[in-house]
Design a protein that fits this description.
The complex is a heterodimer. Chain A is mainly alpha-helical. Helix content of chain A is 70%, strand content 0%. The N and C termini of chain B lie far apart (88 Å). Chain B has 20 helices and 14 strands. The chains are: A mainly alpha, B alpha/beta.
């Protein structure tokens, strides 16, 4: 009897919701076919890949970890790994807190129209591609014809090699990344701030809280979970790297600091015909990223946050 | 209830359309397999000794064509006046249907890789990269053409003629593997082997009362005078006496390579030239040292390392601030990028002339010239119609066919001057997408008028600038030309290290040119060591072991 009612309950539930499941099946199928199925080609990292035979008909490499060993014994790989970590850490150190500050600053602005205009202006660069931004960088900072150096020259100062000196290049790279993405992240925080119950501010006002106190005790705690989620997602990307940004900004004088894993994979793997090596480096990169993601999530949960799952 | 049915129908439609998309692809190979079994012409192995004259049964082939992305009035490279002409004539003469497949000239390697890996590469492919062919060859992706050389490729063999670099061999067999007898690619013939030239602003020299430089020192002095005296009146801080790009070893080639010890043996030169880089040849370093000196004295564009291609450097030349540069022997006079033409728009009395001033230690202005073997044609192993593809190449090699494609119709794309065609720029649908339709006439680079004695005149007339400039440029770049050393051995593909060495080579040159003169030796030696460790040494070892006289 009990069994029967359970079955009936399921049947009833299904009768009610089958159309939702049917609709869900498409995105699930999409994910399976276009996201999970291609993953099986990771096998390439353990094979002597021959493009004319395909992944599965190619022989297994001997030893199996041949391509990993090859990558780990190459100086270029370690340089690229070091640069990836360095540039991404710097990006995180500067690129993460600044949007929080900016969001709070904008939120505190009394003149709403000014706030809106500022908000729009700072988030517009997000929609520019890195190719355009690297062009802007050259126009601004090139040693001879860049506007900045032309100005320096006209006041008798020596030109500064923003793009060709490795140390200065790091600064330029980070600064442009900051300029491009700062406004976009600010919007996410502003949205979170909007979600804070205004009664809290009113109550604080009544209690005589200062502006600073309101920020510290209401705004920041109010957006804490958003901050944590974004931080976890950023940590998950610490070893990942965009391709267009380092590729378009770099030049042959700064390769020692500009070559990151994604450009290394493109240069040595794809252009150099070593697809198995590419797959091995990519797999290594992904595994480290997943480890970072899980540990950041675990730590967040330990501190009483919801994490991202 | 109604809504539920509607959603069911919608969902079904979506599923069907998604699966339908998949199905089209999986279904495709089946019919072609069927046709291959029913159509006897598509089994080339089975046909015994095909003859070039016999008209085969109808079949179709695909042919790679470069898409140069040229804008402004140019035509679709796969469908224009010339492709229509080819299609109609090949159908009539050879009973073959030709379809062109566009491949971007600028992403040639990537696109070819994709097509080759998918087994959908055109039946007739071409690439300038010998290394790409070595990679395909080693992976078993290319068809062996040796059996067809004397049957289907008779006219091509005759046109390519004897190999001038390898005595006693035919050019068509240039890339043959002497051990196995296999032939996986066939080179095109360069009518013209001129390499690089140095160009200088003659109007600036005249203004300063300087003669055309005839030695390296005079060249250097001229650049120093350009910088100090600004003869063009462009502003002393704007003058760029010498421009180049991040590809320093090419854009300063004639200057640097004149420092190479002329007594070096053929073998040493061949063994130590890794991926066409001469860094290790004795004397090369001293050439770079001069460039370093010039850079530190402000004679070289300080931004060259930021130029990944010619665009910025071209724009500087056109804007009239550049004193001298090194490039292809005719670069200043080509319609694209139109350096002299656009320069004269900005500076009407500007003159760009070629000079030949870099003498080596023996006092000779020796310089490289190209090998007569140019772009490589190959046929993928996946091709369903090797025979048809070869018939097409052979058809194209016949003089009447390639000659028409090269010069087009009289009065439209050329006019006859003293019996020799002079190219004129067409503006209608008969415009050529590439100069002399080089992208269609794949076995020839340069105009062949069928009479070698008329070649020089035809060459000079094929440009839109004063023919004398071309004659001079050609003479300058060919004078004391050193033919490239060809050693007929099969080398393993340097693919895995090729890109690394290319990129490191750029960094090496950029750092060596921009460092302070005091650091030059340390910078150069450290970078060379890294370069050797990164794979150059192993390439050298293989070349040394395989060298044969």
């Amino acid at each position: 009897m009990k069994q029967k009612s359970a079955t009936r309950k399921t049947a009833l539930y299904f009768k009610k919701t089958w159309s939702l499941y049917l609709m869900m099946s498409l995105p699930v199928a999409f994910a399976l076919v276009f996201r999970y199925l291609p993953m099986t080609n990771i096998a390439m990292a353990f094979k002597e890949y021959n493009m004319f035979k395909g992944v599965w008909a190619s022989p297994w490499s001997d030893p199996v970890f041949k391509w990993f060993e090859k990558a780990f014994t190459t100086k270029d790989f370690w340089d690229a790994l070091r640069n990836t970590l360095m540039l991404n850490s710097l990006d995180l150190a500067f690129g993460f807190p600044i949007p929080v500050f900016l969001a709070i600053l904008l939120n505190e602005l009394a003149f709403k129209r000014y706030k809106k205009v500022t908000q729009t202006i700072v988030y517009l660069p997000h929609f520019l591609s890195w190719i355009i931004i690297s062009g802007i960088a050259k126009q601004l900072l090139a040693p001879r014809s860049g506007i900045v150096n032309v100005l320096l020259n006209s006041v008798g100062a020596k030109p500064i090699d923003f793009l060709t000196n490795p140390t200065l290049y790091i600064g330029t790279y980070i600064a442009f990344g900051l300029w491009k993405e700062m406004g976009w992240n600010t919007i996410i925080y502003l949205a979170a701030i909007t979600g804070i119950n205004p009664e809290l501010y009113e109550a604080a006002e009544v209690d005589g809280a200062s502006r600073w106190k309101k920020i510290w005790h209401i705004t920041l705690p109010g957006i804490r979970s958003t901050i944590v989620v974004l931080l976890i997602m950023n940590l998950g990307r610490i070893l990942g790297s965009e391709f267009d940004r380092p590729y378009s900004m770099a030049n042959s004088l700064v390769m020692s600091v500009a070559d990151v894993l994604s450009t290394y994979v493109y240069r040595v793997g794809i252009r150099g015909f070593q697809f198995s090596l590419t797959a091995a480096v990519g797999l290594f990169q992904s595994v480290i990223c997943v480890i970072f993601l899980f540990s950041a999530n675990a730590i967040a949960k330990k501190f009483g946050e919801r994490g991202i799952w | 209830m109604k809504r539920k049915w509607l959603s069911l129908i919608l969902a079904c439609i979506m599923i069907v359309s998604v699966l339908g998309g998949c199905k089209a692809k999986t279904d495709d190979p089946a019919p072609t397999e069927e046709t291959t079994t029913t159509e006897p012409t598509k089994a080339p192995e089975a046909t015994a000794a095909p003859v070039v004259d016999a008209k085969p049964e109808y079949s179709e082939i695909t042919v790679e064509i470069f898409d140069r992305g040229t804008d402004g009035g140019k035509t679709d490279p796969t469908n224009n006046f010339y492709t229509d002409w080819i299609k109609a004539k090949v159908l009539e003469d050879e009973n073959i249907g030709v379809n062109f497949v566009a491949v971007s000239r600028w992403e040639e390697t990537d696109q070819l890789n994709n097509l080759m890996a998918a087994g959908t590469a055109p039946d007739v492919c071409l690439t300038y990269s010998g290394d790409l062919i070595a990679n395909y060859r080693d992976l078993g992706g290319l068809a062996d053409l040796a059996p067809y050389v004397d049957t289907l490729l008779v006219d091509l063999k005759a046109f390519l003629g004897p190999d001038l670099a390898l005595e006693g061999r035919d050019m068509i067999m240039r890339n043959v593997n002497t051990e196995t007898g296999q032939l996986f690619s066939i080179p095109a013939r360069r009518m013209n082997t001129a390499g690089a030239n140095t160009f200088i602003r003659k109007d600036w020299l005249d203004k300063l009362g300087l003669a055309i430089p005839t030695t390296t020192q005079e060249f250097y002095d001229a650049l120093a005078a350009f910088k100090a005296q600004d003869p063009g009146g462009v502003g002393k801080d704007k003058v760029v006496p010498f421009t180049m790009t991040s590809d320093v070893r090419w854009r300063a080639s004639t200057l640097i390579e004149s420092f190479i010890d002329p007594s070096i043996s053929k073998k040493d030169r061949w063994v130590n030239s890794v991926i066409d880089r001469n860094f290790l040849l004795p004397g090369y370093k001293e050439g770079v040292r001069l460039l370093n000196k010039m850079y530190n004295e402000g004679l070289v564009d300080t931004q060259f390392a930021l130029y990944n291609d010619d665009t910025d450097s071209d724009n500087l030349i056109k804007s009239g601030v550049v004193g001298a540069f090194i490039h292809n022997w005719d670069q200043a006079y080509r319609d694209t990028p139109g350096l002299l033409r656009d320069l004269q728009v900005n500076v009407p009395d500007a003159q760009l002339v070629s000079i030949d001033c870099f003498q080596n230690s023996a006092g000779v202005t020796e310089k490289f010239t190209y090998d007569a073997a140019g772009v490589n044609m190959f046929i993928p192993a996946s091709s369903q119609n090797i025979e048809g593809a070869l018939r097409y190449i052979n058809w194209l090699s016949k003089f009447e066919n390639r000659y028409f494609l090269q010069i087009g119709e009289e009065g439209v794309t050329h006019e006859l001057v003293n019996g020799v065609p002079k190219m004129i720029a067409a503006t209608n649908e008969k415009i050529m997408n590439s100069s002399q339709n080089i992208d269609y006439t794949i076995m020839i680079n340069g105009l062949d008028v069928g009479d070698d004695s008329l070649y020089a005149q035809a060459l000079a007339q094929s440009y839109t600038v004063d023919p004398q400039l071309i004659t001079d440029a050609y003479a300058n770049s060919m004078r004391n030309g050193r033919p490239s050393t060809i050693v007929p051995v099969v080398l393993s593909a340097s693919g895995p290290v090729n890109q690394t060495l290319t990129d490191m080579g750029k960094t090496l040159m950029a750092e060596a040119v921009t460092c302070s003169p005091a650091d030059f030796d340390a910078t150069w030696d450290a970078n060379i060591q890294e370069w050797l460790d990164a794979g150059a040494q192993s390439v050298i070892d293989e070349r040394a072991a395989k060298y044969i006289e």
